[in-house]
UniProtKB/TrEMBL annotation:
Alphabetical list of Pfam families matching this protein: 7tm_1
Biological process, per Gene Ontology: phospholipase C-activating G protein-coupled receptor signaling pathway; positive regulation of Rho protein signal transduction
Source species, domain of life: Eukaryota
Membrane topology of the entry: Multi-pass membrane protein
Any GO molecular function: G protein-coupled receptor activity
Protein name: G-protein coupled receptors family 1 profile domain-containing protein
Broad class of where this protein is predominantly found: membrane
Signal peptide boundaries: none
Annotated compartments: Membrane
GO cellular component: plasma membrane
Organism this protein belongs to: Pyxicephalus adspersus (African bullfrog)
Length: 320
């Protein structure tokens, strides 16, 4: 959420520029490579309707969109100046929150689908790929619309403004509108997904413990449990700190919290939580690799094919 109109005792610490520059620089190359490779490999499994592949592809796409905007963020936090159009600033700002909430929803959908299909294999057989496609389109429409207030309520600034991102001010909005935005974001962007992900993790774990079927099914359930738990870990590591500090940050920006010490603590924790939220761009590809045996096999197969191709090229060149 935007930086607020703070009192003199609670101006955001200068360290946030350095923190953001270091964080975004550290995750840019790994995030770009990992998500590009993930999309390259995941497309091979697009016909697998019971493996949450469509949701994983959308998750990787959301991560890649945010990663591609990072160079502009890095430039700003290093140079402390925005020489580009104001629209580009708001677009990058929008993509960050679009990535965050699209990631939350797709992580939730992956957890739910794996949990349901593990408990009811016959539902997996009857499930159509177009259902996942339709759900994904609805997610993008809903999340894309819901994230519009984030850039809309930023200071207009105009194209002549040299400030962007954390240094933008707020447009004035009334307390009812701000409270509605806060409740909506916290409830549907955090509390509901957290409840669902926690439930599916516990449910899948309970299914594995009660499993009395043959060993093959146990292995499938263990893989499903590993994926669901990994989704939960990514969710709690990346998004829980942000949404906890988000509530108090809004209280500070609206001057509902006036104590200087409390304001400084909150404004110090908030940039750290935003940095943690951005790390999901690197953690999600790790989830694909370590939780999907098919992903590992395909990576190995493609790697071997590339090595063989290079060896054949060298042999052909040496024969002349």
């Amino acid at each position: 959420m935007p930086s607020g109109n703070f009192s003199n005792c609670s101006r955001p610490s200068d360290f946030q520029h350095t923190l953001y520059a270091i964080t975004y620089t550290a995750i840019f190359i790994p995030g770009l490579l990992a998500n590009s490779v993930a999309l390259w490999v995941l497309r091979s499994f697009i016909t697998k309707k019971n493996k949450a592949i469509i949701f994983m592809i959308n998750l990787a796409t959301a991560d890649l969109a945010h990663v591609l905007s990072l160079p502009l963020r890095i430039y700003y936090y290093i140079n402390h100046s925005w020489p580009f159009k104001h629209f580009a600033c708001l677009l990058c700002f929008y993509l960050k929150y679009l990535n965050m909430y699209a990631s939350i929803i797709f992580l939730t959908l992956i957890s739910v689908q794996r949990c349901v299909f593990t408990a009811n294999p016959f539902k997996a057989k009857d499930w159509k790929r177009r259902y996942d496609v339709g759900i994904s389109i609805c997610v993008w429409l809903v999340v894309g619309t819901a994230c519009l207030p984030f850039p809309i309520y930023r200071s207009s600034g105009g194209n002549n403004s040299t400030s962007c991102f954390a240094d933008l001010g707020n447009n004035q909005i009334n307390m009812i509108t701000m409270s509605s935005m806060l409740i909506f974001a916290e409830l549907f962007g955090f509390l509901v997904p957290m409840t669902v992900i926690t439930y599916t993790s516990l449910k899948t774990s309970a299914q594995l413990k009660m499993d009395s079927l043959q060993c093959v099914n146990k292995r499938e359930k263990k893989k499903a449990l590993r994926l669901v738990i990994t989704c939960a870990c990514v969710f709690f590591i990346c998004f829980t700190p942000y949404h906890i500090t988000f509530f108090f940050y809004i209280m500070v920006s609206s001057n509902a919290i006036r104590n200087c010490t409390a304001q400084k603590i909150i404004l110090t924790l908030h940039p750290i939580s935003i940095s943690l939220a951005s790390i999901n761009c690197c953690l999600n590809p790790i989830m694909y690799y370590f939780t999907a045996s098919e992903f590992q096999s395909e990576m190995a197969r493609r790697g071997n094919s590339m090595i063989r191709g290079r060896l054949m090229s060298k042999e052909s060149a040496s024969s002349f």
